[in-house]
Specification:
Layout (H helix, E strand, L loop, with lengths): L1 E5 L4 H17 L4 E7 L14 E5 L1 H5 L1 H13 L4 E4 L4 H10 L3 E5 L10 E3 L11 H8 L20 H13 L7 E6 L11 H14 L2 E6 L5 H10 L2 H4 L2 E2 L7 H8 L4 E5 L2 H8 L4 E4 L6 H4 L8 E4 L1 H4 L9 H6 L1 H7 L6 H11 L4
Parallel strand pairs: 1-2, 1-4, 2-3, 4-5, 5-6, 7-8, 7-10, 8-9, 10-11, 11-12
Length: 356
Amino acid sequence: MKILVIQQKMIGDVLVSSIICNNLRLAYPDAQIDYLVYESTKPVLEGNKSISNVIVFQEKHRKNKKELINLALTIRAEKYDLLIDAYSKLESWIITALSGAKRKISYKKIGRTFLYTDNVPFEDFPRSDLGLAIERRLSLLEPLNLKIKIDPLPQLYVTSEENETAQSLLKNHQVDPDRRTVMISLIGSEKLKTYPLNYMAKVIDIIADSHNVNILFNYFPKQISDAKIIFEATKTSTQKKIYFDLLASDLRGYIAIMNQCDIIIGNDGGAINMAKALQKPSFIIFSPWIEKKIWATFEDGIHHLSVHLEDYKKELFVAKTEKELKKDALKLYKEFQPKLFKSKLETFLSNNLSND
């Protein structure tokens, strides 16, 4: 059996959608299971034996329709028995239409149902603490009636060599081995997904005041100016616990460093999703325009918690569309002061750093 799973999005989406491949492997241990993703997301799939081949969707495929058609024809030549489209946008519609796959599964969308043999409802509300991001992916497996126990948890694989390199890096930076270590998802993928820098500094002060911990920052080199603003806005006593220059050189390096940490706190995004895949407790601060119900995955009130401005000021969200919320995101962020969720954060810290 030959299967193709499509997910051309960013790291968090690719990692979450990998659960489709993982469960297909449990159901069909001898199948060829290929995964079509962006090249930049490949590092989160390394070591995943559920995936036979990673097919790379390149920038040229997005910019040039001829290149997209060529990719689709290459896929057609593989003669897949089953195609699962977890992306469901124009590029994947074209690939699906030309794939020649015998069975094609995706979400039910008006005007696109003819492309697929199975159209799965795109649910609006979660039915469990898994969150919609997980539930929607797993719903794409339902038409197959798999005779297995479904595993909803995305997984990351870290080699012993990667762990040793990360441990050496922490040692070289003189990270205190007797203290628990907190990773801060410092800056979002864009300004509208980034908790205000001065507020983030106050969050880090709350962490440092509550527990005697090591604090690591996750940011890209191009974001260093914003990272410095946050660092300089924290208290002197907090700064003594921060290892500002301890950064990974690449995505695999970050994963290995995160594997040495105890918890992660901060902006929603790929860093949070990778930490969860490493089974690290998480505390997420959502942007006002992002729907918490989608990405608040595995929310159990102890190991995984999240906060959203709507939790505290519902009146600001009445009759507002996503487009309107996105337009007003920066203004809404100003209303989302750390004092609103300070007690919830402290409870999370106490529950997950109890051995310090």
